Amino acid sequence: MSKLHLIHGTLPREVVCTENLTPFLKLLPCKGKAGISTLLDGHKLFDASWQTMSIDVRPVCPEDASGCIVEMEQTVNMVLDIERSKRPYDNPIPRPVPTEELICDTSKRYSSSDACYPLDILSAQSWTLSDLFGRRIKGSCLATNILGQPTESLCIKVPHKHRIDTSDGSIERIDSLKNERCYVLPSTGLFEITLPQQDSQAVVSRPIPPLYASRSFTGHGQERGGVQTLLTNPSPDTTVSFVYFETLPWFMKPYIHTLKAQSITSFSPSQEDIITSIYYRPALDRERGTQMELQITVPPASTVRLTYDFEKAILRYTEYPPDANRGFDVAPAIIRILPDPSRQRPEAEYLRTTSLLLSLPTPDFSMPYNVIILTSTVMALAFGSMYNLLIRRFVGADELEGYDFGKVKARIRGRLAGLRDRWFGRTRDRDREKKTQ
């Protein structure tokens, strides 16, 4: 294990499309053609209110470090709006519910019989897999383990009071401690789950996370700025220790001497008690970014504010993206909560903050355009004149064959005589008019 290394890479932002799902599905054993992966439709996935896709690759080795294998875990998280997902493809525009379909709140008083105060039943409305994803689960992928025993392919967390209807051929297992129901899917055929309308008051209790993290920019102007991270420990009696990891782009240069960690609650430990160790690797311009790792300890029921200042670098005009005024994306910070066997946390947990949008000094891109246009015009005029001088052949008019130079002279003289007579004729008429007056 001492020869293994952890390689970290970041992609702060990528414009997603349906083609992002294709290479993700090709990594699956059944290529998205069987099992729960058949529900992954590009239009449904990227139309969700919130979605993430991740691939975790890690080595798994026995105690004697022999016969290590590489384990890959693929994860898709989606937050769906049930009402929006149930809209048909041919009629996606939301419309008011007809009067006869309204469910009125009988606990309120009404001034007339045709008045109605509708109940909010969005959180308790019924749904099926076909309603949410537009399809049902097709078969089972990796239905058995190494010993030939059937494996559970689908698990859902709902209260035990809720009624769930499933297709025939599946095997259900209920875990009362975790409020979880798992199903062994049939190897062939379609599998459907139907959740009828339930009591909205019966919900699964959400476990308290070990840490809350919020990260944002501070300051103003185009020269300097700051980063502020709020780290809250919700536990009333447990201290949480974690590693705070940030990778910053090279054009965002932090000042480490401005790094401060202070508690904003009643109990205020010293900075040395909050930040126990620091690892810092400075950036190299246009080669690598800044790497900063902090081991932080947050006391129970307290909030720690981590701040530092940074300077914004000025880029070359060729290094700006087409939408330069939008800003530059900064990768989120990664928080690794250290394991604590005594607190029922035997393994490390990972949290990620939101990404940030950094505004850099942006030049006026119309000026290079004007310079290019003016330079191109001057070059065209100069090149055209030189090209004419080098390519064209200048020949006297009397040297051309079939060209009568005497006729040209006579024609020019005739034109000049006509202009002279016309001019002097007008002058004589003016003199006569003056004499008559």
Structural features, described:
There is one protein chain. The N and C termini lie far apart (122 Å). The chain is α+β, with helices and mostly antiparallel strands. A five-stranded antiparallel sheet has the order 15-16-13-19-20. It is built from seven helices and 21 strands. The model has no long low-confidence stretch (mean pLDDT 82). It is 19% helix and 29% strand. The radius of gyration is 38 Å and the shape is elongated.
The count of helical stretches stands at: 7
Name the average pLDDT.
Answer: 82
* Strand fraction: 25-35%
Main β-sheet, spatial strand arrangement: 15-16-13-19-20
Count of extended strands: 21
**Which structural class best describes the helix and strand composition?**
alpha+beta
pLDDT < 50 stretches: none
If you compute it from the alpha carbons, what radius of gyration comes out, rounded to the nearest whole angstrom? Answer: 38 Å
Q: Could you state the oligomeric state of the chains shown?
A: single chain
Sheet with most strands: 5 strands, antiparallel
Termini separation: 122 Å
H/E order of the elements? HHEEHEHEEEEEEEEEEEHEEEEEEEHH
Form type: elongated
